[in-house]
Amino acid sequence: MNYAFKKTQKLLTSEDFKCVFDHVDIKAGTGELLVLVFDNQDERPARLGLVVAKKNLKRAVDRNRFKRTVRESFRTHQHQLQGLDFVVLSRRGALALDGPALKKVVDQTWRRILKKRAAKIATCDS
After folding, report:
1. Would you call 38 exposed, middle or buried from its count of C-beta atoms within 10 A (0-12, 13-18, 19+)?
2. At 42, is the secondary structure helix, strand, or coil?
3. Which of 7, 12, 21, 66 registers the highest number of CB atoms within 10 A of its CB?
4. Judging by beta carbons within 10 Å of its beta carbon (0-12, 13-18, 19+), is residue 89 exposed, middle or buried?
5. Chain segment 23-48, per-residue pLDDT in tens
6. Within 13 Å, how many C-alpha atoms sit on residue 82's CB side?
């Protein structure tokens, strides 16, 4: 399996972000982050967009660590997340976590999203 994080897997334009914000299918949040998901229900690769506010993480080193950790976790889970567009927003609680703890929270969030998606598909099929 290829675990590269390519440009096609990034939300790049404001239209891409707007589409996710306007059509949120799944929300998952913790004290450290909020994930908004748009399920476009096709076999396109999963795409990721990050919104990291200075208000929540004041130092650039903290913002960059947050982005790096989320990207790395996304990269390793991308094959399970196909057909979904994500916008991950930072929250103030992210500052309290070190790298491994933040990665654990992000990994758990991907699993919660997949459970919610499976439940949503099951109720639609019924």
Report:
1. buried
2. coil
3. 66
4. middle
5. 999 999 999 999 999 988 777 889 99
6. 7
Contacts of 66 (CB under 8 A, 6+ apart): 50, 52, 57, 90, 94, 102
What pLDDT sits at residue 66?
95
Element (H, E) at 109: helix 99-125
How far is residue 71 from each of residues 23, 50, 53, 120, measured CA to CA in Å?
22, 9, 16, 26
C-alpha torsion 51→55→61→65, nearest 10: -40
pLDDT tens by residue, 53-106: 999 999 999 999 999 999 999 999 998 998 899 999 999 888 888 889 999 999
The structural domains of the chain, ordered by start, are 7-125 (3.30.230.10)
81 SS3 class: coil
Q: Is the dihedral of CA 67, 70, 75, 80 positive or negative?
A: negative
